[in-house]
Amino acid sequence: MRNLKDGIRAHVRLDGLNRVHKRFRGTDADKRYATEVMVLKVLGERGCDYVPKLLEEHPEELYFVSTGVGKPADAISKERSDQLFAELERDYGVKHLDPEPRNITYDMHKGRFCIIDFELAEVLPDPKG
Predict the structure, then answer these.
(1) What whole-number distance in Å separates Cα of residue 76 and Cα of residue 113?
(2) Is the pLDDT score of 1 beyond 90?
(3) In terms of residue numbers, what domain contains 33?
(4) 3-state DSSP call for residue 112?
């Protein structure tokens, strides 16, 4: 597996099947894990197709596996990333609480920008009712 991030708050790896393995650590790891898993489930239920899909949960290890959604979109502007986060909130009722360009990827297979890292996010009422 290839390391994507090995930081104080998480260890993130990509396997040969393009699946992301994320293990939480550090301050409030249990809360951040629970938030990200819950948000990914809600976004899946609400039909959002430009975020990772949750594949496996391992709460006792603060670890999950999700689909990969492209590579970091290093050249995206703050203005464009702000638009993407606003669309996520407007269309799917999820407010990303770390709306920075570093949390945007580009998926060549989908031909679009995607949003990642929902450990700091808030689920709002479903805008579709």
Answers:
(1) 9
(2) no
(3) 2-123
(4) strand
